[in-house]
TrEMBL record:
Alphabetized Gene3D superfamilies for the sequence: 3.30.530.20
Organism from which the protein derives: Irena cyanogastra (Philippine fairy-bluebird)
Alphabetic keyword roster: Lipid transport, Lipid-binding, Transport
Keyword Transport: yes
InterPro entries: StARD5/6, START-like_dom_sf, START_lipid-bd_dom
Name of the protein this chain belongs to: STAR5 protein
Residue intervals of the START domain: 1-156
GO terms, molecular function: cholesterol binding; cholesterol transfer activity
PANTHER family in alphabetical order: PROTEIN CBG07384, STAR-RELATED LIPID TRANSFER PROTEIN 5
Gene: Stard5
Pfam families linked to this entry: START (PF01852)
Length: 156
């Protein structure tokens, strides 16, 4: 979890190679080739008219959190094991997509939550295997490389 958090911090601080691919008035999505796997990294950025604490309540990875209520790509989120106040092993399930052509997925990740001195909040995750969470029938087990969300306060 700590390594995933550090990897995300490095992605954030390295502006090189990101190419814009989609943009609206609210969100800009960029991509760049991954150095870890044969594929691309993606990042979405936007400014929300809300306090960082209110935004964090919507995205933080906790059981019973708001993410399953607003994010159509997250069907369920559960904590398999709480390792500390800031690190846990979690299972996230996603619904089927494209008229059930894409099967439901499940992801088991170790998740770290951090708050930095400047008020930035981070959730970082990466794939892990856990004996209390073997692959479940009717789900395809997904694999996450380091991923997560930053909630960064901006002036005003």
């Amino acid at each position: 979890a700590e390594e995933a958090a550090e990897q995300l911090r490095l992605y954030r601080r390295d502006p090189d190679g990101w190419r814009g691919c989609r943009s609206t008035g609210e969100v800009a999505v960029s991509w760049r080739p991954s150095a870890e796997f044969a594929g691309n990294l993606y990042k979405g950025e936007g400014i929300l008219p809300a306090s960082p604490q209110n935004v964090w309540e919507c995205i933080k990875p906790v059981a019973g959190g708001l993410r399953t209520k607003w994010d159509q790509n997250v069907k369920d989120f559960e904590v398999i094991e709480a390792i500390s106040d800031t690190i846990s092993v979690c299972r996230t399930t996603t619904p089927s997509a494209c008229m059930r052509i894409i099967s439901p997925r499940e992801f088991v990740d170790v998740v770290a939550m951090k708050q930095y001195e400047d008020g930035t909040m981070l959730s970082a995750a990466t794939n892990v295997e856990h004996p209390l969470c073997p692959p479940q029938p009717n789900f395809v087990r997904g694999f996450n490389y380091p991923c997560g969300c930053f909630c960064i306060p901006v002036p005003g």
